[in-house]
Every structure is written in structure tokens, then in C-alpha cells.
Amino acid sequence: MLITMLTAGTRGDVQPYIALGVALQKAGDYTIRIAASENFESLVKEFGLEFYPLPGDLSKIAEDSRIRKAMEADNPLKIIMSFNRLKSPIFDFQKDFYRACQGSDGIIYHPGAAIAYFIAQRLNIPSILASPFPMQPTQDYPALIFYHFPRLGKGFNRLTHLVFEEIMWGMSKSGIKAFWQKEFRTNPPNFANPFRKQQPTIVSCSNYVFPKPQDLPVTVHNTGYWFLDEGVNGLLKEELEDFLSSGSPPVYVGFGSLGDPTQAEKTTQLVINALNLCGQRGILVTGWHGMAKLDRMPETILMLESVSHAWLFPRLSVIVHHGGAGTTAAALRSGVPSVIIPHANDQFAWGTRLYELGVAAKPIPRKKLTANNLAAAITDTFRQEVRQKAKVLGEKIQGEKGLEKAVQIVMDCFKQGST
């Protein structure tokens, strides 16, 4: 059985699907094909999965001003406006999503690939919505892009989810319609927001972080996180182990795919100053644009381009990051406290939620980041109460077996031919 997974976004969006694909291939007679930006080809193939390239290197595409504005949107209005700007780039992916699914027996798709719902109907095969974040309407808590706003009650909570669904649908709707009209001279049958339709849905999120609400349909499953356990090999591993063994556990600082390349060196210096103020060593990860290596780096700082979170995070004292869903999941599982510097979109929600859970310092929005407040936040996470809560939550997440649950749900749905 060939299952195609349609992904959308940066590494944090793609990696959970690789983990799910690997687990499915181990569990049954499945071949897994992952459609993702072409710069993820080596990562996907490394784990023995088929790869279908979406055009363009996402790290380069992210330099497009439209994409950059969407990645930096820090309130719902800006998100709506920035997503409108994405309609043209998103259209370019629709034909590739469609072609990636040819010959498939089932489709698993990211919310950013909403066309999958209609492709599955046309091909008469089952599909499953697989989200790396909670997005189904509930009265228990607001949608993630509204989560850090004042709480206005259960009715408002549900309304925010409906608004978010419309934002996600609005980003893809015109592109799907244009592709379908060009390809088939008609709209897809039952052409309406697929997120409003009752369909099998799996969510890569821990029930210890956002418990599954009682008002969700039985078709929605909060399985727990889907982790991809990567190692570190060769010279990088030797370099890391030498640094780790040369002093106290260091602080990790990395902002993933986010950051302004024109401010990268300035951000690096800010981080170094903060670590000096609180007397900590650091491992800094440049990511795509967040930081850059300076001409003179202190001996107390190790700077890398990228590193396996699964391998490194448990060996650290504090994890300073942007609050992307994937990085947040890895930090939570490690049992190490976080300091979250949200830049945009749902990152404010993760910063707020981890602070509510007592496993992180109060989040510092990127626009308000200084060496002094970063140093104070890092110091705050050394309180015994924070460290103990992070350790306990990490142990719970480690025992949650999210991948096993997700695999069983996928197998059951595809066995029944659910659509």
C-alpha cells in the first residue's frame, strides 16, 4: 500500500511526518512517499522513505518578502494579511501536490495542503488530516494564534478556532480552485472548507500539554507527539562531546528557520552578552537566518549550523528557542526548562502554554529581547520548582507513545477505507 504524505512548511512541520512514515513502514506493508520542499530530500531518503520534491529550496524561498512577512506575523490581523500574500506562491504547489498523489492508496496531509481532501475524493482513496498542532474547534481554549490574548469565555474560544480554520482555508482555496479549473474545467465536488468536514484527524500534540477536549468529534485523535530520533555522527559528535564534557551543561540558543539575516550578527552578540551576564556556557545554532558566527567567538560558546534536538537537548541546562511546534515538543520531551522567544504565529501560544505549565520562563517577544531580560529569564529557569516540573512533564511525554497510537489509527482508517 502506497501512502503519500503531503507536507507544508519548515523542518519542524516536515519532521513529524517523517517519523510517522518510518513507524508506518515498520508496522505494516506500506511504502511511504513524502512530498516536501526539495531541501528535505536527503533527510527523507536517509530514513528509507520515497521523496517527491516540491519546487524550490525553502530556505531560499523564505527570503521572499511575502514569505518573510508571513513568518514574522505576530498578531491575527497580520497573519490574515500575510496569508493573503501567500496565495500566489501557494498556487504553485497545487499541481505538485496532485502529481505526488498519483498511484497512491491513501493520503495523509498537513493542514497547509488542504487540496489533499479533494484529491482523495477524486482518486476514491482514504485521506487523513494530520496536524502538528491542535486546530479543531473547542470551547476549552482559544485557537493558537489567539492563545496569548485575554480570555473572553467558551463561546469566544470556539469562535477563534472557526476564524483560524477560515484563515487556513483562505490561504489555499483560490489556488485549489484555479488548479482544478485549469486541470478539470470545474471545481472539486463539494468544494467547501475541508476543515469543517468530519474526517479522520490525528494531532501530533501531547495530552499533557493540551488535553483532548471533550467537545471534539470521535474522529479527532490527540495521539501525543511523533518524534524522529536522529543521532549525531562523526566529527560533529566528537566536537559536541568535547564541549559538553569541558564544563557545566550549556544553554542552547536557536531560532530555527526564523530571523533577519541583516541582524544575525547583532543577535549573536546579544545572546553572548546575555550568557556572560548569567554566567553560562552556550551552544548556539544559526539555523537559516537567526544568528551568524562572529570573527571572534568566546571559548565558552560553541556555534553550529544545525544539530539533532533529540540527541542534544537532554544534555543541556536550558533551551532557548523560538517556540516552533517541533522544537517545543523536543524541548518538552527532554525534561529541560525552556526560555521561548516567540517571533510570530503560533509561537506566542507555545511560549504562553509552557509558562502556564511551569516548565519555562515567561516568554520574551523577539521585538522586546535584550541581553538583560534574556539573562534574567535563563536564570529564572534554574529555580528548583521549574526544573522539577520540566523533568516530570518530560517523563510523562516520553511514556505517551504518540507514534504507536498514530500508526494504529492510520492502519485502522485505511483498512476501513475511510474518506
From TrEMBL:
GO terms for biological process, alphabetical: carbohydrate metabolic process; vancomycin biosynthetic process
Erythromycin biosynthesis protein CIII-like C-terminal domain boundaries: 292-383
InterPro entries per the UniProt record, alphabetical: EryCIII-like_C (IPR010610), Glycosyltransferase_28 (IPR050426), GlycoTrans_28_N (IPR004276), UDP_glucos_trans (IPR002213)
Domain of life: Bacteria
Gene3D superfamilies hit by this protein: Glycogen Phosphorylase B (3.40.50.2000)
Pfam family, one: EryCIII-like_C
Keyword Glycosyltransferase: yes
Protein name stated in the entry: Sterol 3-beta-glucosyltransferase
Organism from which the protein derives: Rippkaea orientalis (strain PCC 8801 / RF-1)
